[in-house]
Amino acid sequence: MPDTSPAPRTAGPTDRRSALHADAVAVLTGWTPTSPAAAEAAGRTLDLLAAGPVATDRSHLPGHVTASALVLDSTGSRVLLCLHGKFHRWVQLGGHCEETDRTLAAAALREATEESGIAGLVVDPVPIDVDIHRVGCQGGSLHHDVRFAVFAPPGAVERVSDESEALGWFPPDRLPEPLAGGTVQLVAPALAALARRATAS
């Protein structure tokens, strides 16, 4: 008698993004915003996430969730930024979420590791900011960027990736120009996250 049982269903892109989507909703629902602008952006991002896991994929034209990281050295005296290869401004590390990312914090950590070449980075799982800005993805879309503080180990040495023209360490109160909009507002909450980590350890 022929086998009539259904073939195993292969997980599609939406299935693979369900954990990331659930994490994004949980993180932003329970988050205490770091500024009024971040509160508004977080609310709009939760509205976007009502579309389901597809809202974490770059193909979603109304907008998609991304993750980025402001990398601090172990003392908090320097911030690592990259000179972006496309728009030629200094900016924090980050980018699109991938199907392998299970959480937003993991996506931010992966991006920071790939773009900095630094092993042993540690991410604080509590966002330091949410920002929405227009980008050229798929002919025009919005990035709903959830931002995290990431801490480098002592003696970390960066390595420029294909996505940036340069990497540089800068004092938090003397960031380089031209600077991407929204980057400077990450410094204070990132330093606060580092202070909390030092107190907890």
From TrEMBL:
PROSITE patterns: NUDIX, TAT. This is 8-oxo-dGTP pyrophosphatase MutT, NUDIX family. It holds the Pfam family NUDIX. It comes from the Bacteria. Signal peptide: none annotated. It comes from Micromonospora coxensis. Residues 62-192 form the Nudix hydrolase domain. The lineage of its organism: Bacteria, Bacillati, Actinomycetota, Actinomycetes, Micromonosporales. Belongs to the Nudix hydrolase family.
